[in-house]
């Protein structure tokens, strides 16, 4: 028996498209896949992670439901039938996300609804702290603090304890408790995301104060505030902040945010403060069709709508209705990828798809659901690994973060994961 080996299939020196294959005893015919995600290029076409022969993949563990962690997974069901492990909310949201992905990208996708269904049918739910045996390899998952259901995956192979962060957050927010590091304990090897490995987020309380102050100002002068937000987690986080402070004007919620909120409420043990989310869901106006949508933007109020980068969906519709009036405001609260409509609105002040200026006030606030450098280092200090593998990070960020990790004096070895590389552990 050889030592365990990992192969990076995606997410090496890039943010997203995460996929790591673990070969327990360096047997080429056995593997456990941690995530299998997809990214999008500048033209918004999907870029899939590399794959391993499906017949040699025993199991796929999905850390959470974002497409950059699951969008390649159905490919393993074109010719294979691995077992799949995920928490219940991850599995339920995976269905929404993958079906939506096929609706928008079916033309470019090598898999179809049949494979998505096979993946979901093969999924066994795992709970935080539960231990599962996969042919002699012990799998357990812990709360990663990133979005509801997100898992920090731990795999025990012959006494070597390997941790995989998935996407992780170490601060408390309205929606999420921080990653449960105490439950994870000590690791031998840490495979870590480092999206924000070289920077620090401003304190969350300050972002919340700014959000509420801008809303108050705009609402006071009779304007409408549009908050484009990701359907998973960011939309609900904003709903909860508003529910706690009663903005005094109608709040509308539109897009896939509604269905995801319902999944969260069904899985309330995965949420920090389910009572507050329920309050928001009950009190706010849930937009259910064009009649509601046409009404929502016509009076002073607040609209929380997907998509978060104005890629399409109701947020783009609302921007076109309210963006031309300086009395209104657009507050972006999600990551804005270079080349996205949202980034263009922030940087050039132009309406998507036209040369018309945006006259509404535009703001971009940091409500990131990823740990920053400080949080990531906290994970290293808490898990004390002898080896750290950095993935899900731009190359220059990964390099800066690697130096910081070495400075802790904890791991002997820090490796920046590279796509298609194999790393002995
Ligand atoms: Zn990710
Ligand atoms: Zn994520």
UniProtKB/TrEMBL annotation:
<dbReference type="Pfam" id="PF16661">
    <property type="entry name" value="Lactamase_B_6"/>
</dbReference>
<dbReference type="Pfam" id="PF10996">
    <property type="entry name" value="Beta-Casp"/>
</dbReference>
<dbReference type="InterPro" id="IPR022712">
    <property type="entry name" value="Beta_Casp"/>
</dbReference>
<protein>
    <submittedName>
        <fullName>MBL fold metallo-hydrolase</fullName>
    </submittedName>
</protein>
<feature type="domain" description="Beta-Casp">
    <location>
        <begin position="235"/>
        <end position="345"/>
    </location>
</feature>
<dbReference type="InterPro" id="IPR036866">
    <property type="entry name" value="RibonucZ/Hydroxyglut_hydro"/>
</dbReference>
<dbReference type="Pfam" id="PF07521">
    <property type="entry name" value="RMMBL"/>
</dbReference>
<feature type="domain" description="Metallo-beta-lactamase">
    <location>
        <begin position="16"/>
        <end position="204"/>
    </location>
</feature>
<dbReference type="InterPro" id="IPR011108">
    <property type="entry name" value="RMMBL"/>
</dbReference>
<dbReference type="InterPro" id="IPR001279">
    <property type="entry name" value="Metallo-B-lactamas"/>
</dbReference>
<keyword id="KW-0378">Hydrolase</keyword>
<dbReference type="InterPro" id="IPR050698">
    <property type="entry name" value="MBL"/>
</dbReference>
């Amino acid at each position: 028996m050889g030592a365990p080996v990992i192969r990076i299939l995606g997410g090496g020196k890039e943010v997203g498209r995460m996929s790591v294959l673990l070969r327990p005893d360096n047997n080429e015919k056995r593997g456990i896949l941690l995530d299998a995600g997809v990214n999008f290029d500048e033209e918004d076409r999907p870029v899939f992670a590399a794959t391993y022969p499906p017949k040699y993949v025993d199991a796929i563990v999905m850390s959470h439901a974002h497409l950059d962690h699951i969008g390649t997974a159905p490919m393993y069901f074109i010719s294979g039938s691995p077992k799949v492990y995920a928490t219940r909310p991850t599995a339920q949201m995976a269905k929404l996300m993958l079906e939506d992905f096929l609706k928008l990208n079916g033309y470019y996708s090598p898999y179809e609804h049949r494979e998505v269904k096979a993946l979901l049918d093969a999924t066994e739910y795992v709970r935080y702290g539960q231990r599962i045996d996969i042919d002699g390899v012990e799998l357990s998952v812990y709360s990663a603090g990133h979005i509801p259901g997100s898992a920090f995956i731990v795999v025990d192979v012959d006494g070597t304890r390997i941790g995989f962060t998935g996407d992780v957050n170490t601060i408390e927010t309205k929606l999420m408790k921080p990653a449960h590091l105490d439950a994870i304990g000590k690791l031998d090897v840490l495979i870590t995301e480092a999206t924000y490995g070289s920077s620090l987020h401003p304190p969350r309380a300050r972002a919340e104060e700014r959000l509420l102050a801008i809303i108050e100002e705009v609402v006071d002068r009779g304007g409408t505030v549009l908050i484009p937000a990701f359907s998973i987690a960011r939309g609900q986080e904003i709903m909860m902040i508003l529910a706690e402070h009663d903005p005094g004007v109608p709040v509308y919620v539109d897009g896939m945010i509604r269905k995801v909120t319902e999944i969260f409420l069904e899985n309330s043990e995965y949420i920090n403060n389910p009572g507050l989310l329920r309050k928001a869901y009950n009190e706010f106006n849930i937009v259910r069709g064009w009649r509601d949508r046409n009404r929502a933007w016509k009076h002073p109020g607040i609209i929380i709508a997907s998509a978060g980068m104005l890629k399409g969906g109701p947020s783009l519709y609302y921007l076109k209705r309210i963006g031309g009036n300086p009395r209104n405001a657009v507050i972006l609260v999600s990551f804005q990828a270079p080349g996205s409509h949202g980034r263009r609105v922030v940087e050039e002040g132009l309406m998507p798809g036209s040369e018309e200026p945006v006259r509404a006030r535009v703001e971009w606030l940091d409500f990131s659901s990823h740990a920053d450098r400080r949080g990531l280092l906290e994970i290293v200090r808490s898990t004390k690994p002898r080896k750290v593998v950095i993935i899900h990070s731009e190359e220059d960020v990964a390099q800066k973060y690697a130096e910081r990790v070495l400075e802790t004096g904890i791991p002997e070895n820090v490796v920046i994961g590279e796509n298609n590389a194999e790393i002995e552990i």
